[in-house]
Amino acid sequence: MKKLLVASIICASIFSCKKEENITYKYADQPSVLTCEISDNKLYTEAYYTFENAILTHAKNTNRNPNRVITLDQAMRNFVSRSRGVININDYVTKESLDVFKALHSKGLWNGEKLKSQSDVLNCIGKSISNKDLKTSFNALRSVEESLDPKLIVSAIVSSNNRSQYKDKALMTYIALDAYFGKFIGKDFSKIEFLKAKEETPAVTKPEVTLKKDPHAGHNHGPNDGHNH
Q1: Is residue 101 part of a domain?
Q2: What 3-state class would DSSP assign to 110?
Q3: 47 falls within a domain
Q4: Does residue 58 sit within a domain?
Q5: Is the separation of the CB atoms in 100 and 53 below 8 Å?
Q6: Are 25 and 79 in contact (CB under 8 A)?
Q7: Sequence-distant contacts of 101-106: CB under 8 A, at least 24 apart
Q8: Could you read off the pLDDT tens digit of each residue along the chain, which spans 229 residues?
Q9: PROSITE patterns given for it (predicted)?
Q10: CA-based torsion, 89, 90, 91, 94: positive or negative
């Protein structure tokens, strides 16, 4: 009994005995989105690609033009632009993204509903953003406590003339953490219908109609046609 008590105290004091949510890594074969050597890099990569899949699925599901091909770049731009206002996050939640959120939340990345600006992952993102102006703005906001606001970063992204930032996986990982997964906090998803890709409706093939040949077609049935009537 004494050994069990000692083990419990050690666990509580050193490891905090925080249960980590188990997730299935669907994107383990994808390249890492962050180049820094930080712990849980695999989880952040999973978070990015899960976010990417969710917004692309949503964009395709809500596309009303059957002739328009939705690309990831378009889906990303659309989500970032809409993030300036109010987004119904329930429309974007997949079963996988909820599992990933639980794993991220267990890492203590948020203080209440606020993403901690001095975490290892945000330090790495701050070093990795390719757009110089956005990188400066991001790190300036991050250096002041409680000043890192996704709407400020989103506004800076949207107002920039350089569209390449939507392909900047480090910057979009921040968007995933703060403007996407951050909106999961405090929400009850127990009764929602998870986002899934709509099944494509197969094209309806009209049956071939075979016309019966008229035996009299091509014949002239006048009084001098040579037939006896």
Answers
A1: yes
A2: strand
A3: yes
A4: yes
A5: no
A6: no
A7: 101/181, 101/184, 102/21, 102/23, 103/20, 103/21, 103/22, 103/23, 103/43, 104/43, 104/47, 104/177, 104/181, 105/21, 105/184, 105/185, 106/18, 106/19, 106/20, 106/21
A8: 444 443 443 343 333 344 455 789 999 999 999 999 999 999 999 999 999 999 999 999 999 998 999 999 999 999 999 999 999 999 999 999 999 999 999 999 999 999 999 999 999 999 999 999 999 999 999 998 778 999 999 999 999 888 889 999 999 999 999 999 999 999 999 999 999 998 765 544 455 555 555 555 555 555 555 555 5
A9: PROKAR_LIPOPROTEIN
A10: positive
> Which two structure tokens, joined as six digits, stand for 201?
């409706």
Phi, psi of 97 (to 5 degrees): -70, -30
Query: Which domain, by its residues, includes 145?
Result: 20-184
Query: Domain tally for the chain?
Result: 1
Task: State the residue for tokens 């009537």.
Answer: 229
